[in-house]
Amino acid sequence: MTSQQQQDAFTERIAGNEALIWKVCRLYGETEQDRQDLFQEIMVQTWKSFDQFRGEAKFSTWLYQVSINTALSGIRKKKRMIPVVQRDVMPEITDFSSPPEDEQLQQLYHAIAKLNGVEKALTLLYLEDRSYKEMEVILGVSESTLRVKMTRVKEKLRQLINI
């Protein structure tokens, strides 16, 4: 695959899954600037590892894995340092605006923001109707453990929303 073909394939795949990335950014970024920085960092990490996508899982599953790992890595570092990437190497993606949200969704995100990193990821995947098998691949946690964690997370969210 030529460099241009790879860039075109990357741009096409990202365009079809941009909302997925924004969901991760909304959960892990506290401010709009944090979200945009995280979006850019996820884009860089996705581009860096794009040639490693083998198609064994759905692209969206792989993209969730890259996005969540990038977000969790940023939390661990407690600094968001965006690597410098040459413009001619990474495809140009200019629309970095996050999608609008309604009030009910904002309340849900506010409650989810109080969860820890793995709980946030699990909640996001659950809300996306991902199967526990797929969650297992993305998060690297056994299916039975995920089911127990999800039960606990649901209870936590019920308590947070009823406060």
TrEMBL record:
Domain RNA polymerase sigma-70 region: 17-80
RNA polymerase sigma factor 70 region 4 type domain sequence ranges: 106-157
Name this polypeptide is given: RNA polymerase sigma factor
Record InterPro entries: RNA_pol_sigma-70-like, RNA_pol_sigma-70_dom, RNA_pol_sigma70_r2, RNA_pol_sigma70_r4_t2, RNA_pol_sigma_r2, RNA_pol_sigma_r3/r4-like, WH-like_DNA-bd_sf
Matching PANTHER family: RNA POLYMERASE ECF-TYPE SIGMA FACTO, RNA POLYMERASE ECF-TYPE SIGMA FACTOR
SUPFAM superfamilies in alphabetical order: Sigma2 domain of RNA polymerase sigma factors (SSF88946), Sigma3 and sigma4 domains of RNA polymerase sigma factors (SSF88659)
Keywords in alphabetical order: Sigma factor, Transcription, Transcription regulation
Origin superkingdom: Bacteria
Family: Belongs to the sigma-70 factor family. ECF subfamily.
